[in-house]
Design goal:
The protein has about 375 residues and is α/β, with parallel strands linked by helices. About 40% of the residues lie in helices and about 15% in strands. The protein has twelve helices and 14 strands. The chain has a seven-stranded mixed sheet with strand order 1-9-8-5-4-2-3, sandwiched between helices. It is globular and about 70 Å long. Bound molecules: pyridoxal-5'-phosphate. The site of pyridoxal-5'-phosphate has 15 residues, from α3 and α4.
Length: about 375
């Protein structure tokens, strides 16, 4: 699905030097490499504070801790996302309230959010799924009307830009109260292990988050709140700093591949290509097709048989996951999500795809679907 080897080979001297520098300095925890990357990411995003942490899941969990969300508080999120979003809600004994997504963008449906609000609702967690922003204009309005926090799950959308009605543009993750990202190797800005970050414009929340990610420690060995141990490794920060300088070029390469796919698949009667909402750019963390006519699983098997990478993100809606079975929900409650789980397939999407590979992939898929009746 991704070609991390090919990408590394093109930047090998720079990456190797950056890693060696950390080793030479033996500054493995925090230290200059982490600070440098933090500063560069703040500049890139145009956000006041970046708080590095160990992974995207921790970023979400620490965000909810920083907002003092209490057991029983309701947090509204989407039924069509990676499990981490809802996992941290459950771990903190908050109550996840799931809502359906929009059929064109696969992002959370603002009208459904509005309907799900109760007096216990404290926060909304929109996920900018597959690399385009959710409808933040509508979400911010709902949050303002009901005095709710907005925590953006921007783990798949680093670099995506949202255009507000007032003419301003903002990076995904810098729009709500807090934004979370992941530097998992296959993410759009991926390191060589685990990594994550929280973004905020709020000085108080930033200060609190820096304490939470460091064992709740304000002064060395004085702990004012319950925290966690969640740090970004210096070696990962050094890798990320090199790759951040290329993030825009990486995004362009993904968009170019997406355009190729769109052209090849756009008019096929059994295929629905990804739709981008007018208020956002799309950084194509995933290129996800919908296969009509009930042929998704057959295509999946066909591609697997040929050794062509492909993946189903996601095969099971959150409310049907065994660990999250809840009497409040049953099959049929989230029809769009459920349909997507039956129809979606994601294709190889990375910075190193060339025309030859794209031609082979698209030809293989359309040839197969042309034999389906
Ligand atoms: C990857 C991802 C996460 C979690 O990030 P990790 O770094 O793997 O913990 C959370 N939410 C979404 C939507 C993701 O894609």
């Amino acid at each position: 699905m991704v070609d991390l080897q090919g990408q590394y080979e093109k930047i090998k001297p720079e990456i190797d030097t950056a890693i060696q520098e950390v080793v030479d300095q033996t500054a493995f925890i925090n230290g200059p490499a982490v600070q440098r990357f933090q500063k560069h990411l703040e500049q890139y995003l145009g956000v006041k504070h970046v708080i590095p942490c160990a992974n995207g899941t921790d970023a979400l969990q620490c965000s909810m801790m920083a907002l003092d969300l209490q057991p029983g508080d309701e947090v509204i999120t989407t039924s069509f996302t990676f499990i981490a979003t809802v996992e941290v809600i459950a771990l903190l004994r908050l109550t996840p309230v799931l809502v359906d997504v929009l059929p064109d963008t696969f992002n959370i449906d603002p009208e459904a959010i509005r309907k799900a609000i109760t007096p216990r609702t404290k926060a909304i967690v929109p996920v900018h799924l597959f690399g385009q922003c959710a409808d933040m204009e509508a979400i911010l309005k709902i949050a303002a009307d009901h005095n709710l926090f907005v925590i953006e799950d921007a783990c798949q959308s680093i670099g995506a830009v949202w255009h507000a009605c007032d003419g301003t543009s903002h990076h995904s993750g810098t729009i709500g109260h807090l934004g979370c990202t992941s530097f998992f190797p296959s993410k759009n800005l991926g390191c060589y292990g685990d990594g994550g970050a929280i973004y905020t414009q709020d000085d108080t929340l930033a200060a609190k988050l820096r304490v939470i990610v460091n064992h709740g420690m304000t002064v060395r060995y004085y702990h004012d709140m319950v925290g966690v141990n969640s740090r970004l490794d210096a070696i990962q920060a050094a890798v990320l700093d090199v790759k951040l300088g290329r993030l825009d070029a990486y995004i362009e390469a993904r968009q170019k591949a997406a355009n190729y796919y769109n052209k090849a698949f756009g008019s096929h009667p059994l295929l629905v290509t990804p739709q981008t909402a007018p208020f956002t750019s799309h950084v194509f963390h995933q290129y996800t097709l919908q296969i009509k006519g009930g042929h998704r699983d057959a295509l999946h098997q066909h591609l697997n048989g040929l050794g062509i990478p492909n993946a189903i993100y996601y095969p099971v809606p959150l409310h049907m996951q065994k660990a999250y079975i809840d009497p409040r929900y049953r099959e049929g409650d989230f029809p769009v999500t459920e349909q997507l789980c039956r129809e979606v397939i994601s294709l190889p999407m990375h910075t190193e795809l060339d025309e030859e590979q794209l031609a082979y992939l698209t030809r293989t898929i359309t040839d197969f679907l042309n034999t389906c009746k």
